[in-house]
Structure formats: structure tokens, C-alpha cells
């Protein structure tokens, strides 16, 4: 690697560590820049950019795939990013696409509509629509529509959980809910009513039946296998969320696993998918092991 790239990488790392916006780009974008510098050329690439899965401006997605994926039938992962349902961009999460594509997955990273332009359940409906697009088109990128898993971090983990657990979102658009083979849920809110923060009040406060907003309400025995990952030092998503969902899934006899990462904060699980911060949490290794058990 060129010395200037090493220097720039160190500067960006310091910017992330300080939580600084000095470089006028979001921390996920900073992380993606560093990860891209460290990537081995040719192991994976973005093979689809700004692909439309609906008519609205934010209904677009990117596709990442391994080298020479064309014509193959590779397992597929749809990843929903976080941002309190208020912000985020698919273009900032290439490090997730590279991580899984380099290991044999075709990765779909969709945008979805955000607060304040929309409220619940629009962002979940967009997440489901991305599943439909994947079912219909992923074969064109080397993916197998019969092996689709969903994943997400923070608010994106919420979206993934709702699409996986509340079957009506997929049924409403003509998709069999059983199309989802597994789910990876990183630091997500699953049991957060009553709404006690500005983000949740803005996103969910107008909905007249709060139980319908909570993933724990839709735990079912025939849910896709779920891997729930949470840092024990997460001060963004309250600690009750992961064990609450795990307890409800256990009560109904669903297949799931729970990983508690000692000392990890809210962002460590997602940073653990990137090359420079794989030591923050064993998220990637745990995710791959779980997927290989359930989506092959």
C-alpha cells in the first residue's frame, strides 16, 4: 500500500475514534473509505449501483458480488443500514458489501425512505420491497433467489427483524415469507415501547397500535433462524432489547442464537465487519458461521 494511503487511513481512523465530522463525511463513510483502501483488488466489486426497486427517489440499491459471480447461484444477503430511521446511505456501507462478497455472497444494500418525510411503516415496506426486487432480479448478478438472508445494524436490524418476523409485509406484495432463510440482527431495537426518545417518537409515535411496531410482537415458531448480536456496553439501544427478543423466540420454539459481546458499544458490531476494526467484535465470523448453517 502506498505511504500516502497509510497516512490518510490513519488520519481517518483518528477522525472516527474522536467521533469527529471534521472531514465532512459521516463516520460510516470514513470507515468505508479506509476499508476500500485495504481491499484486495479483484476479490469483490460493486456490480450494481443505484438500481431502482421502486419509483421513489430513495428506492434504490447497490449490489456487491465476488469476482466472476456471473452465471453462478450464490447465497444472497440483504443488508439494511442504521441511522435512527432518520439518515443513512447505501453508498457508505461498501465495507459490508466487500466483507460478505469476498466470502462468496451476493450482497444487496438498499436505501429506504426516512423520517421526517415518512413514518412507520413506510421504511419497513421499502425494506420488504427490496426483498421482492432481490427475488426477481438477483439471478442476473449471480445470486440464488432461493437462498436469501437479511441483515441489519441498529435501525436496520429493526427493519430486518420486521421483514423476517411480521409476514404480512411480504405477503402484501406477493412474496412468500419463507423466502427469507436467515437473519442477522446487529445491535437492534426490538422491544422499545413506550417510545421515550425523539427518534422513536418521530418514527413511531403517530401509529395508533404500538404493539404492531414491535418485533417482539411477531415472534413465531416458523420464523427464519435469527442471530441476535449485541454489545454489553451499548448505550444507544437499551440492553433489554436483545434478551427480550431472544426470550420471546425461545417461548414460541423458534430457531435463534444470541451473542453478547463483552464491553462492545453500539457501533462495535458493525465496525467488526470492516477490515480495520475486525477486532472490535467477532461479528463477521459469527455471521458467516450462522449463515453457513442455515442458508446453504
How would you sum up this structure in a few lines?
The protein is α/β, with parallel strands linked by helices and 296 residues long. It contains ten helices and eight strands.
Topology record:
Layout: H1 3-17, H2 27-38, E1 44-52, E2 60-66, E3 74-80, H3 94-101, E4 106-110, H4 122-137, E5 143-153, H5 155-165, H6 168-171, E6 180-186, H7 198-204, E7 226-231, H8 241-252, E8 256-261, H9 268-271, H10 283-294
Parallel strand pairs: 3-4, 3-5, 5-6, 6-7, 7-8
Antiparallel strand pairs: 1-2, 2-4
Helix pairs in contact: 1-2, 4-5
Describe the structure.
It is a single chain. This protein has 296 residues and is of the alpha/beta class. It is 34% helix and 20% strand. It contains 10 helices and 8 strands. It has an 8-stranded mixed sheet, with helices on both faces. Helix 3 links the parallel strand 3 (74-80) and strand 4. The longest helix is centred in the middle third of the chain and has 16 residues, at 122-137. The protein starts with a helix and ends with a helix. 47% of the residues are buried. Mean pLDDT is 92; it is low at 1-8 and 16-23.
Any key phrases for this structure?
8-stranded mixed beta sheet; globular; disordered N terminus; 296 residues; 34% helix
